[in-house]
């Protein structure tokens, strides 16, 4: 899903939220996270990256009953989906990550681009959100 972003207010930077869903076998969770760590560190150091959070859940395959591990990333960036795909995703640090993790996928990776609502009106993060850090 690619969304058109409103550029009428040139004082507001373009902001996108990328939602990525990856499905792997539960036994691959730690190897996946180990491969993700260096890319995560590189991504969060990018000046255009505003936010990165990872989530995990388990589910059962509807056809086989096999347990599956779901991983979801939410990344907020200053830029457009086109910039993200043609500039950001071409950075060399993604290469080893893809080579290591893609064979772990039991379903194709899914991704969606969303436009954030402008301003601070629809944002709330309480300090207790990160109390376990």
What does this structure look like?
With 133 residues, this protein is of the alpha+beta class. The chain has one domain (15-117): Alpha-Beta Plaits (2-Layer Sandwich), CATH 3.30.70. It has three helices and four strands. It has helices at 29-44, 81-86, 93-101; strands at residues 15-24, 49-60, 67-78, 110-115. Strand 2 (49-60) and strand 3 form a beta hairpin. The termini are far apart. 8% of the residues are buried.
Tally of separate helices: 3
Taking all residues together, what is the mean pLDDT?
90
In angstroms, what is the radius of gyration? Answer: 16 Å
Largest sheet: 4 strands, antiparallel
Residue share in β-strands = 25-35%
**Can you give the helix content as a percent range?**
10-25%
CATH topology: Alpha-Beta Plaits
* Text of the CATH class: Alpha Beta
Question: From the 3D coordinates, which CATH architecture would you assign?
Answer: 2-Layer Sandwich
Form type: globular
Unreliable sequence segments: 1-11
According to DSSP, the number of beta strands is 4
Assign the structural class, choosing from mainly alpha, mainly beta, alpha/beta, alpha+beta, or little secondary structure.
alpha+beta
- Provide the succession of SSEs: EHEEHHE
How far is the N terminus from the C terminus?
Answer: 33 Å
Spatially, the strands of the biggest sheet line up as 2-3-1-4
Tell me the domain tally: 1
């Amino acid at each position: 899903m690619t969304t058109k972003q409103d550029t009428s207010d040139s004082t507001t930077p373009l902001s996108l939220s990328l939602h990525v869903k990856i499905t792997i076998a539960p036994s691959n969770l730690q190897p996946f996270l180990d491969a993700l760590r260096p890319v995560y560190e590189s991504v969060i150091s990018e000046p255009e990256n505003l936010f990165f959070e990872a989530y995990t859940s388990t589910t059962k395959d509807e056809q086989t009953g096999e347990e599956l591990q779901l991983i979801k990333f939410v990344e907020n960036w200053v830029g457009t989906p086109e910039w993200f795909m043609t500039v950001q995703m071409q950075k060399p640090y993604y290469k080893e990550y893809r080579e290591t993790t893609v064979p772990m996928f039991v379903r194709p990776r899914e991704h969606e681009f969303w436009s954030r609502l402008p301003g601070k009106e629809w944002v709330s993060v309480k300090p207790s959100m990160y109390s376990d850090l």
